[in-house]
Structures are given as C-alpha cells and as structure tokens.
Amino acid sequence: MELLPTFSNNKSTMHQQQQQQQQTRFKRSSSMPLILTRLVRFTQMDFEFALWQMAYLLIAPRRVYRNIYYHKQTKNQWARDDPAFLVLLASLLCVSAIAWGLVFGLGFLGVVKAMLLMVLVDFVLVGSIVATFLWFFTNRFLNQSNAITQTNDQKVEWAYAFDVHCNSFFPLFLILYIIQFFFLNLLIRHNWASLVISNAIYLISIVWYCYGTFLGFNVLPFLVHTELLLYPIFGFLVLFIVLCVLGINLSENAVGFYFGWS
C-alpha cells in the first residue's frame, strides 16, 4: 500500500518533466521572442556579419546558407537570433522611402506613409504571409519524415521561413527600390522598349526571390523535392508575356499605386 503514493508521485514527476522538455523544445524551435528582445540592443548586434550576408546574397548566395549548419550546432536552431540583418534591411527601406518621397514631393506625412507601407506592408506583412505559407507547405508536403514522428530538429521553424524571406527580399529590394529609382524616367516612357525593360526587371526580381527561397529550403537535410519551389517561375514568365502583350507597364502602375502619380 505504501508503494501507491510513490508510484503516483513518480508519474506526476515524469509528467512535469515531459512538459518542461516540451516547453524547452518549443522555445528552441522559435527564435522570434529572442530576436524581439534584442531589437533594442544595438551594441549586441553583429552588423558586420549582416553586411557580409547581404554582399554574398548577391555574389554567392549558397555560401550564406552554408553557415546555417554551424548556427544549428551552436544555437540549436535553424533561424538567426541576431536581428542585425532585419534592422539593416528595414533601415534601407526607410532611406529608400525618403528618396522616393522627396522626388515625388510627398511631404513629411507622405514620406512617413511611404516608409510604413514599404517596411510594414511590403516587407513584414507580405513576408509573414509568404513565410507562413512556405512553413506550412514545406512541413506538410516536403518533409521526408512522417508528421507524427517528426522531432523539432526535423521541422521547418517559422522564424527560419521568415529568414529565408528576408534573404530573398534583399536582392528584390535592390532591383525594385534602388535600380528602378534611378532609371524610372526611362522605364515609364510610352514605348515598347520601356515596357519590356520595366516588366523585365520585375520578372528578374521575382525570379531571384524564388531562387533564393529555393536555396534557403534546399539546404535543410530533412526536406525533399525542394525544386518544386522553383515552379512558380514558369507562371511569372507567362504573366510577363501577357503583361507585355496587353501593354501594362508595371513600373508606371507601381508608382501610381505608391505615390499617386500618373
């Protein structure tokens, strides 16, 4: 009879330990709370490494993802825990919004609105939607492990999916927010060459985004058939042809949407 309370206590202790282990695994599987807590700690951010990543995302993007294995071994998570890359990219978007706002004479409130639109909508909101879709799609359809037996080490973290978006968004940012800015006068002219070149830079930027997304998920050892992430490129190519045939200039329409210019 004396063994019954002991057995009950042991069972309760084991249950508590399992809950603690699950909580620990949950904390390790998501880096977003850690990133949020470090957003105001600029002295702890590694901006030099973030700049290195930005440079190599342009010249050798595969090399950026090679560091993920080291990060996984040292931090026990696939996603970055240093928000320096996000801070730099958001700052660049703000500078871009100021430049666009000054050119189109938006005024102070107009520039602030452009900054919020580019950072919160284009980068954060759209990126979160894309990351959520890719997080679900890769875990549901591309994960080679059975969903029931998956461990946290064999699941795509949502924070990592958002990291992939951030990495893929940087080349797109340079093309659509910087290069397009300097050549806008040529891109919005009403002729066939401007139409094709304008739509082509949008096609190139989205193809680069898709390719960067593919590289980000292809490096994860537990995912298979990641080449499926490249298939949307064919759809965008068809869309490019259709827009050119219909005479729709994406640069002209984008400027009209953002800055009310026509």
Task: Write a compact overview of the structure shown.
Belongs to the unc-50 family. This protein is an all-alpha fold and 262 residues long. 76% of the residues lie in helices and 0% in strands.
Fold and architecture overview:
By secondary structure, the chain is mainly alpha-helical. Helices cover about 75% and strands about 0% of the residues. The protein contains 11 helices and no strands. Helix 3 crosses helix 7, helix 5 crosses helix 6 and helix 9 (about 190-220) runs antiparallel to helix 10. The termini are far apart. About 25% of the residues are buried. Belongs to the unc-50 family. It is a multi-pass membrane protein. It is found in: Membrane.
Low-confidence blocks of residues: 1-9, 19-32
The H-and-E topology, N to C, reads as: HHHHHHHHHHH
Mean of residue pLDDT values: 85
End-to-end Cα distance: 87 Å
Which structural category do the helix and sheet elements fall into?
Answer: mainly alpha
Number of helices, counting only DSSP H or I runs of 4 residues or more: 11
Question: Strand share of the residues?
Answer: under 5%
Total DSSP E strands: 0
Helix content: over 70%
Dominant shape: globular
Main sheet record? none
Q: Radius of gyration, Cα only, in angstroms?
A: 23 Å
